[in-house]
Amino acid sequence: MTDIAPVPIVDSRKGRSPGQSATLFMGKYGALIVLALLVVVFTIMEPKYFLTWGNIVQIFNQSALAAIVSCGLTLVLAANQFDLSVGNTASLSGIAVAALLIAGVPIPLAILLAVSIGLVVGLVNSLLVTRLGVNALVATLGVGSVAVGANYLISGGAAQPFGAYVPEFTQISVGTWLGIPKNVYYMVVVVAVLWVLLNRTVLGRNMQAVGGNAEASRLVGVPVRGVTTSAFVICSICAAITGVLLAAVVGSGQATGGDGYTLQAFAAAFLGTAVMREGQFHILGTVVGVITVATGFNGLAIIGVPAFAQFLFQGLVLIAAVSFSTVARKLTRAG
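^ Autoinducer 2 import system permease protein LsrD, sequence as received from the core. Prediction below:
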């Protein structure tokens, strides 16, 4: 009888330098560490207000719309694509719903048509990327520019206030249920649906498979084009929903109202890759990323820092998150 020698288990972590181990640690827990540091620092600087129930609810309220567009973007990123048109799509849907309401279109139909803009934008993005082979960055940047043009064609660049025509529309977003702002409920519903979609459905698993290796997925029968199209469409619909809710909050359509969500969504999604996973896009990580960015904005505003500091903070968060995410993915793949 021949003895079978046990196969030695090689722990690849032993070969890593302290710097690589620290990078992997930050790549897995960095967002949570940043969030904890922000809470501690702002609590020390504003002990009477920052960590109160009212301000915590305010942070979640500030996170709500950004979370909806960011989680939609997460699907596209999980499929290894990019969508730079999300902010412009949100602005366009906000302007569209305002213009439709002013024109006398019933509220449900106006919402449906505005959200349908997201469907069209998503289909165009996916057509350019999956059928024509245009790079996703270039395609979605171009589609975003077209959305800006359509936006100015409708509005002339001016705000579209609808309060005098349909004041009840603002009640969709303004106000609370059981003391919690309505937009927080919308955020929870969208996050829950997208989490189930990405983690508990065949479509979601296919998105992650395509993001990991599109060619290998194709060889095992995954419909790569269909999966990528679904990711783009869902992402753009989430952006359009955000635009409609933003218009309800503001009481008017704003020509550039949703543009800022592009950078915020990317910052949150990449920051979310440093939440319990090493460089992977996932819904709960993105939510933590959104809350981290919102906590930073909220704390900076409370301590009276000028507005430019918020943009510096957001840009630095995006750079740091992308850097750690990229390096962590490389180290993880290298074993």
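The two ends are 36 Å apart (CA to CA).
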